[in-house]
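Shipment paperwork, digital attachment
Item: protein structure file
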Amino acid sequence: MPNTKPRLLDLFSKSGGAGYGYHLAGFEVVGVDTANIKRYPFEFIRRDAIEVLADKEFLSTFDAIHASPPCQTHSATKHLRNAQGKQSSKIDLIPQTRAGLIASGLPYIIENVPGAPLHNPVVLCGSSFGLKVRRHRLFESNVQLTGLPCNHKTQGRPVGVYGSLRDNIPHGGKTATSVEEAREAMGIDWMLWGDLVEAIPPAYTEHLGMQLITQV
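Attachment content:
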């Protein structure tokens, strides 16, 4: 029996946190990333996302697109990386990505970190879904999206999934003490630490995907 699910293209997919949420919302998901991703849970294509956005024939096989272009330029954790002597990327692919998404004519969502120059984004937080992470993220779209209010008070002290394991920040958060704790905090059960620090919880895109799927 042929698959009748709408197809979603997951650009800059990493290991599929966003993609899995769209899967839960009812999409058939295909991931694209330049890295050789070994733990992506669906069909995966190793390819440059900006080049893919110029491939009209390929895009015509999809009903919607999600994109998470590199965010290190805008991330608050760039200061932590600088303090640790790690090089921070200055690449900002948001303008190019947005232009390609608009040209595609498809419903789309761009995800990025607070401080990123997204247009009229909605904000989502792990506390809204009963998760232990905060991980605020912005979502821009060419369709109407509804966010959710944060619930920090009920959540309490969050579990951080960034930097290094077992960091304790005085008067602030703490990072997970194990990969298992990080997975539980994110609502993800297949990733390793290096994947988790770059992921978004699937709960976010399941919430948005249920709205997006009504537009395709």
